[in-house]
Amino acid sequence: MAELALVAVSMLLLYWLVKYQQLVDEYGKIHHLVEWLQNENRKMSQFLEHGSDEAITESLSGCDCHACLSRQGERAWWMVVCSLCGNKRCPRTEDCRFKCTNSNQPGQVGELENVLMKGDVSDGQD
Questions:
Q1: pLDDT tens column, 79-115
Q2: Which one, of 66, 46, 42, 65, lies nearest residue 54 by Cα?
Q3: Which of 79, 96, 77, 81 lies closest to 36, judged by CA?
Q4: How is the chain split into domains, by residue range?
Q5: C-beta of residue 68 within 8 angstroms of C-beta of residue 61
Q6: Listed residue (67, 69, 91, 70) closest to 81, CA to CA
Q7: In whole angstroms, what is the distance from residue 30 CA to residue 37 CA?
Q8: Alpha carbon distances (Å) from 23 to 15, 17, 19
């Protein structure tokens, strides 16, 4: 009888450990969402305080390339895909200034668009 009680207690303990792990996983997801919301709130507050078009453009631009996320102090916890072709290996997923290759081949090298970004690319004139 004692062995049966020990088995029952062990199974109950295992059940609660699994439930605990599920709660920890859900907390992690909620924690990431809260961090993202706080970051968006910070950006909107900066815009409201300073009236900066750049702050609101950055906040609402929707660019999810790794470079833009890094500049915003964020990192992707989702799979980043090219906003033009939808491929995950397109060089544009790393930096939105790269040309879209419309390809999903691994090891692609990004080639910059012929567009100058503020202070990011030299125009060759010194």
A1: 888 888 888 889 988 888 888 898 888 888 877 765 4
A2: 46
A3: 77
A4: 1-61, 63-113
A5: yes
A6: 91
A7: 11
A8: 13, 10, 6
- What is the sign, positive or negative, of the torsion defined by CA atoms of 83, 88, 91, 95? positive
Q: Quick one: DSSP state of residue 80? A: -
For residue 3, the number of C-alpha atoms closer than 13 Å in the C-beta half-sphere is 0
Distances (CA, A) of 104 to 2, 44, 73, 108: 61, 35, 27, 9
Assess contact for 50 and 63: CB atoms under 8 A.
no
Q: Alpha carbon of 68 to those of 9, 27, 58, 73, 74: distances in Å?
A: 52, 27, 9, 9, 9
Q: Rounded to two decimals, what is the model's pTM?
A: 0.41
Output the DSSP codes for 96-115. Answer: TTBPP-----TTPPP-B-S-
